[in-house]
Structures are given as C-alpha cells and as structure tokens.
Automatic annotation (TrEMBL):
Top-level taxon of the source organism: Eukaryota
GO molecular function, one term: 3'-5'-RNA exonuclease activity
PANTHER family (alphabetical): CARBON CATABOLITE REPRESSOR PROTEIN 4, ENDONUCLEASE_EXONUCLEASE_PHOSPHATASE DOMAIN-CONTAINING PROTEIN
Record-annotated Endonuclease/exonuclease/phosphatase domain positions: 11-221
Cited Gene3D superfamilies: Endonuclease/exonuclease/phosphatase
Taxonomic lineage of the native organism: Eukaryota, Rhodophyta, Florideophyceae, Rhodymeniophycidae, Gracilariales
Region entry Disordered, spans: 418-444, 449-468
Any matching Pfam family: Exo_endo_phos
Domain Mut7-C RNAse: 248-393
Protein name: Protein angel-like
Length: 566
C-alpha cells in the first residue's frame, strides 16, 4: 500500500440487539422478524463483508465474543473493543492486518469526567456526568511498502470510535464528552516523538450539525448553552407547523385551565382526549398524542419532560406549573413562539370545543331549543353550536372573560417589551447553573497522567507530558461535508424522526477523496422506518476514503489542507 492509496473508512451504529426492541419497528407486533438477531446478523455481516473497508468503526456492538470477533478474525482483521460499564454493548475498531500495525490503544470511559477533582463540581453535577458512554482510540501505522526498490516506512495516524450520550435534553453532557475525547486523542498524539500525521474521529455523536457539540469538534470552540436548554433541545425534532403560519397548540390533560385562558385570547388550542391521556399515563404510550399533533400541525404544551426523550416526539413546549404562575407560563409560551395578539380576537374561540365564534340572529336554527335572551346580539360556535351573549353586569361571565383576556394581554405585552430591551444582558446572566459546569469541563480539563492504565502499548518515544492549550486542540473537518459540501439530510431514521447524528471527522494532513451514506436498496422514501427487510439498523452507514500526506512542519497541523496534488 503506497502513501497515495486511499484508506477506506466505515462508521456505523449497527443497533445493538438489546436496543432493537425499543425502536419503532421493534414495538410492532408483526415485525418481530425484522429485529431478530439471527436475521439482522446475517445482513450486518453481509454488508461488512461486501464493503471490505480498511478501517471499520462500529457502535452499539453486542454479541462481540460470539459473532463480531470471530467474523473479523476470519476476515483477516485485527479488532479492538471496549464495552460500556454495566451495559451489553460497546464500540469497536477493526483494521486490516496486512495494511496496518497497532502502535497503541486507549479506552476512554466518559464517567471519568465526574472524578476530575480539580473541577470542584458539586455532587449532583458529577452524578449527571456518569452516563456509561465510552470511546476507543487507536494509533496505527501503515505497513512498510516498497517504492523504487526502497523500503518506505508507512505514515502513522489515529482513529477513534465513540457513541455519545443520547438524551436531547442534555446537550451540555454531550459537549463535555466531545471535549474530553478530543483532549484524549491529542494526548495519544503527544506520546510519539515522530508525529502522527492525521486523526480520524468516527461514531454516533447524537448531535445535529447545528449543535454546539458539532461546532466544538469542527471549530474547537462552542457558544455557551442557554440554561433553558429544555426548549433548545426541541430544535432537533420535526416541527409540527410550517414557519410563517399561525402556531396552534395541543395541551396535555393536566393543562385544562391554560387551554381555556389561551382560548380567551383567540388562540387556536385543543386538549388531549381521554383515550390519549389513558394510554400515556397507564402504558407510557405517547403515539396517539404525537399523531394528533402531527395531523393537526400543533405544538404540544406539556408538563412532562420525559416526552422529549422519545425520538418520535414532535415540537414540544414544557411548562412548570409548580414553580410559575399561569400568567407567567402563558407569557413565556406566547413570547417563545412570537405569537401576535390582537384585542379584536378576544373571545373569538369557543371555550368548550375550540371552534370559531360568529355572530348570528336570535332566530338562527342553530340556537333552536336553547334558553337565550332575545334582546341583544347573539353569537354561536360554528362547530358545537354553543350560544354566547354579553351580560348586563361586570360580574357576568362574558365580562369576566373579557377582563381576564385583557389582563393576560397586558401581562404578555409588558414581558415582551422587557425582553426586547434586555435580551442581550438577560442571555449573558442566564447562561449559568448546569451549563457553567460545562464551561469548566471544556476549558479546565486537567492534564492526563502519563502512566494511564488504559494506554496498553506504545512503540514510540513518549514526549514530555504537558497540558494542551486550547490552540493546540485538533480541529476536524467532516468527511461528508468536505466531499459533498453539506451533511446528509439524515443518518438516523426511527419512526418520524430523521436527522443527522453520525459523522466521520478528519484532522491533520489528510484529504477526503470520496464519501457517501449507505442504506438499504429500497431507501427511506419507500420504507417508513428502519430497520426493515433491506437494512438491519436504524442508522445509515457512513463510508469515506482518505489519503494521508506527510507532515513537513514536524508536527500535526491544526487545520487540515483542503487540496491535494500528486
């Protein structure tokens, strides 16, 4: 293998057998054959054998000893594996025996973040960092080859495989894990007197391209995370409404009063039905509520944060009734979605069913049989035919409803004006609490001990161990972004969720010659969800070819060259 021969790299979350039951397909009674391990393993092994990549990075790997290890050894690969503590799955890296020599390996357990004493984190924060996620780093050297009758020593590089924390409500944990992993990779590079020319970082990062985790890896920096990350986390979800159209809401069964007050303002809002509430409370089944939100293009308003952990969850806004007044909750909701309020819309929505209210004559057939006054203007709901009219006193229902609407309107407008005047200052002061701990993790990770037990072997001469500054971090480029000028539309399909969570990043002196996303022959447009009969995982496979180049400056460059000439 010459230095200009591309190295083929595969990264794939192949869906652990222990997690297959929890996918959208796995929950269907008639789809057991699609998630059975013997069936999926035949397809997984066939796909890996077909692509025959030089380097293979896999996540969610279980059945390692019984299936994956024998398969790779039989296929002339060396394979290294690290299992998650207390879990059945882990990550692995396989590399061809005839093309690479192993220089060293480092197993990364992200729970170590909680034990970093110099950060002085509170106990509650340390416990939240223990998510049993892992990564594996290998330093490899290409085999010596003959060129012009002379033996040429191959270039050395590192490759890392990882699977970051999944929860969309915890972007600060994923950001901390990514930061820690990058520093661990840099420390592996520091162990060799002859520099490793490149770094390949592959895996399931559970982070979208617009996330701060992605930004940290690509640029070496990240913006502070807002302490109200519970709402920012919703941005990864499929929006239930089109930008520009009036926002409609769907309140869960615990927010009946909020629904009624929103209707007073003329806002289109409906309530979760009894059957949906029963399925959600008794069986933890959110599918009916989610389907209603998508069909009616509504934003769900709820008190349940557990709802956000579902990959099929549509747009959600979480309220906290125990800590805030109802007026404050409504104000935050309307200001978050920038809902325009108009006094002419007050009392224009039926409080009973949510239908529109229109004026009518007293002898309208829709009012037939109702006990109504005949001496004043009448109004009727076009949906349920509920009759409305204005009372004679300030204590009448209509007068009290109008007064409530005006009070809410004034409250929302006052808070909106205050937010506009102090938005920048407010954002600076609210970026605190748990995310300030993330800044500590990002900026003050201490120097790793040189005699780490996780570093098993090293054939190079160790350099002096010193703490890496921010400027010396490796800066990565996405392989698919480099060759296609954009990230793929999605790499994970589970129910209605489609998003890009998997990446192959490269840094140092190497060039991406090609890259692609691999899925089943039927494709996502014909298959509603993965895994299916053609594809054994809910994640797509990423494939890239990279070409290593010698480092002329004597150490690993910070920014990767974007051009390559023979």
């Amino acid at each position: 293998m010459s230095e200009i021969t591309p190295i083929s790299v595969i990264s794939w979350n192949c869906l652990a057998d222990s997690y297959a039951q929890g996918t959208t397909v796995g929950k269907r009674k008639n789809c057991a054959h699609l998630i059975s391990w013997p069936q999926r393993w035949r397809r997984i092994s066939h796909i890996l054998h077909r692509f025959d990549a030089d380097l293979i990075s896999l996540q969610e790997v279980d059945h390692f000893e019984s299936h994956f290890k024998p398969f790779f050894l039989k296929s002339d690969y060396n394979v290294r594996y690290v299992q998650r503590p207390g879990r059945e799955d882990g990550v692995l890296i396989a590399f061809k025996k005839d093309k690479f020599d192993l220089l060293c390996e480092d197993s990364v357990h992200f729970d170590e973040l909680a034990d970093v004493k110099t950060l002085q984190l509170p106990l509650s924060t340390r416990n939240k960092l223990k998510r049993k996620n892992v990564a594996l780093i290998l330093a490899l050297r290409k085999k010596t080859f003959i060129m012009g009758g002379e033996a040429i020593c191959g270039l050395s590089f590192s490759i890392a495989s990882t699977h970051l924390y999944w929860n969309p409500l915890a972007p600060h944990i994923k950001l901390s894990q990514a930061t820690y992993l990058i520093k661990r990779i840099a420390l592996v590079h520091e162990k060799f007197s002859k520099p490793l020319v490149a770094s390949i970082l592959a895996g399931d990062f559970n982070s979208l391209p617009q996330s701060q985790t992605y930004r940290r890896i690509m640029r070496g920096t990240a913006f502070p995370l807002d302490s109200e990350a519970v709402h920012d986390a919703c941005k990864h979800l499929v929006l239930s409404y089109k930008p520009g159209e009036p926002v409609k809401f769907l309140c869960d069964s615990t927010l009946t009063r909020m629904m009624r007050w929103l209707r007073l303002l003329g806002i289109d809002v409906t309530l979760e039905d009894n059957y949906s509430e029963q399925r959600r409370s008794e069986y933890n089944d959110f599918s009916i509520l989610f389907e209603q939100a998508r069909e009616q293009r509504r934003v769900i308003v709820t008190t349940s944060t557990s709802m956000l952990r579902r990959s099929t969850c549509p747009e959600v806004f979480v309220v906290r009734p125990s800590s805030e007044s109802l007026e404050s909750q409504i104000s935050k909701l309307l200001n978050f979605y920038n809902v325009e309020l108009n006094e002419s819309s007050f009392l224009s929505i039926c409080g009973k069913c949510g239908g529109a209210i229109e004026s009518c004559e007293a002898d309208d057939c829709r009012l037939e049989g109702k006990a109504i006054p005949r001496d004043r203007p009448m109004y009727v709901c076009i949906k349920c035919f509920q009759a409305y009219w204005n009372g004679d006193s300030d204590s009448a229902v209509s007068a009290r409803a109008l007064q409530r609407a005006r009070t809410l309107f004034a409250y929302v407008q006052a808070e909106r004006m205050q937010n506009q005047q102090s938005r920048e200052t407010s954002r600076q002061h609210t970026t605190r609490s748990r995310n300030s701990q993330c800044s500590k993790l990002a900026d003050n990770l201490p120097e790793m001990k040189q005699d780490r037990r996780s570093v098993l072997r090293s054939s190079g001469t160790p350099r002096s161990n010193r703490e890496l500054s921010r400027k010396e971090w490796l800066r990565y480029t996405s392989a698919l972004m480099e060759s296609n000028e954009q990230e793929p539309e999605y790499t994970n399909v589970n129910g209605t969720f489609r998003g890009t969570l998997d990446y192959i990043f490269v840094a140092g002196s190497c060039v991406v010659s090609s890259s692609m996303v691999v899925s089943g022959t039927s494709g996502c447009k014909q298959r509603k969800s993965f895994p299916n009969i053609d594809w054994p995982s809910d994640h797509m496979m990423l494939h890239a070819e990279v070409i290593l180049q010698p480092v002329r400056s004597g150490r690993l460059p910070l920014a990767r060259s974007s051009t390559f000439t023979l």
